[in-house]
Amino acid sequence: MSRARLLIVDDDPMFRQLLTRMLRKDYLIAVANDGVEAFAKASEHLPDVAIVDVQMPNWDGIKTLRAFRTHPDLRLVPVIILTGDAKKSTVLSAIQNGAADYLIKADLRNDDLIARIQRLLTRKSGAFPPGTPETNQKPSPTRPHESSPRPEPALAGVSSPPPAMQRTSTFDDQAIQSILDSWE
Known about the structure:
By secondary structure, this protein is of the alpha/beta class. It has seven helices and five strands, in the order βαβαβαβαβααα.
C-alpha cells in the first residue's frame, strides 16, 4: 500500500522541518516556501492533503487556497490551514474559500494533526468505518466514492463555498459555532 502524499507550505524553514520530521514516517512529504511554489509543485505532483500557513510572502495561504479551488486538478485536494493567525476574519476567509480544516500552531499536537489528516484521507477515499455518519449517506451521483456534502451552517454575511469544496470540509455546525463563540 502506498503512502499518502502531503504538501507542507510554510515560509518558516524550522516549522517546515518540524512538520516534516513529525509526518515523514507515515507520509510522503513535499515542501514549499510559499503559495506560488506550492501551486507549481501541487500541479506537477498532486498531493493527497496540503497543509498551508496563512502568513507567507508572495501568495499567502488564502490566495493559495483560492488558486487550489479554481484549478481543475487541485480543487478537491483537502487543505488544512495551519497558522499562528487566529483572527476571526482569517478563519472565516479560510472556511469560505474551502479549507478542510483550520489549526492554530500554538495548539498543535502531533496526534491531533495526524488524526485530522487521516480523517481527510478517509473521506477523500470514500472508505468510512461501518456505523459512521458518512456510511449512512447516499453517494453523490457525480462522484460515487465521496459522501454527500453536509449542509453548511448559515453564517451572517458568509456565503457557502461551492459544493465541490464542501465535500472535503471537516467543519460541521458545532465546529463552526465553537470557532465563532471563541471570539464573542
